[in-house]
Design goal:
- There is one protein chain.
- The protein is 36% helix and 21% strand.
- The protein has 5 helices and 9 strands; from the N terminus they run H-E-E-E-E-E-H-E-H-E-H-E-E-H.
- A hairpin with an 8-residue loop joins strand 8 (147-150) and strand 9.
- Helix 1 (4-25) runs parallel beside helix 5 (167-180) and helix 2 (78-90) runs parallel beside helix 4 (131-139).
- It is globular.
- The mean pLDDT is 94.
């Protein structure tokens, strides 16, 4: 059986490897400028943000290239942690997620990749409930889709969350998406 310390080290190692892949191959236009982009990976059974590793400061664009703003660490991003913790209540195997920029073109390409997509419908949101928690939960009632589109309240806050069992799966989908949008106007 793997110790908690070994699992945390494994999570950081896998997440760091995925970040390197994203820095090498992610289309910089996928970084969500308004709210930021980040990738997170949770330990098995994570209950709070202390059990979710992410990139400190998120993913940023420097000279048209995606770069990690900081190192991977636990508790580094409360937003990606909330998204993952909500999704993992419905499927404990879905332990990794990334937030990227939303455009209609990106959404179409993700659909063409045959990834299961769900869009948050804010019209059914009960008053006084966090949009992020409720929205992710509303899309996960029959299992966690690979893609959740959060249309936000404006163009700047619209994002897409991609989910997977681990960082290699999520990074692989982002790299595939990046290769498919090379010649597309976003």
């Amino acid at each position: 059986m793997i110790s908690p310390e070994q699992q945390r080290n494994d999570v950081l190692t896998r997440l760091s490897r995925a970040v390197v892949l994203l820095e090498e191959s992610m289309d910089s236009r996928l970084v969500a400028a308004g709210v930021g982009s980040n990738i997170g990976y949770a330990i098995t059974g994570a209950r709070d943000s202390a059990g979710v590793a992410a990139v400190a400061g998120g993913l940023v664009v420097q000279n048209n290239t995606v770069r990690a703003a900081g190192t991977c660490g636990f508790g580094a991003d409360a937003e990606i942690a909330k998204i993952l913790l909500t999704a993992s209540k419905f499927d404990p195997e879905m332990r990794c997620a990334i937030t990227i920029r939303y455009t209609d073109a990106v959404r179409r390409v993700l659909g063409d990749m045959f990834l299961e997509c769900c869009t948050i419908d804010r019209s059914g949101q009960p008053p006084g409930v966090s949009t992020m928690d409720w929205g992710v939960a509303s899309c996960c009632r029959e299992g966690v889709p690979e893609v959740i589109v959060n249309p936000g309240v404006s163009k700047e806050t619209a994002v897409i969350h991609l989910f997977g069992e681990n960082p290699a799966v999520v990074a692989g989908n982002i790299i595939m998406l990046s290769n498919r949008i090379i010649r597309i106007e976003l």
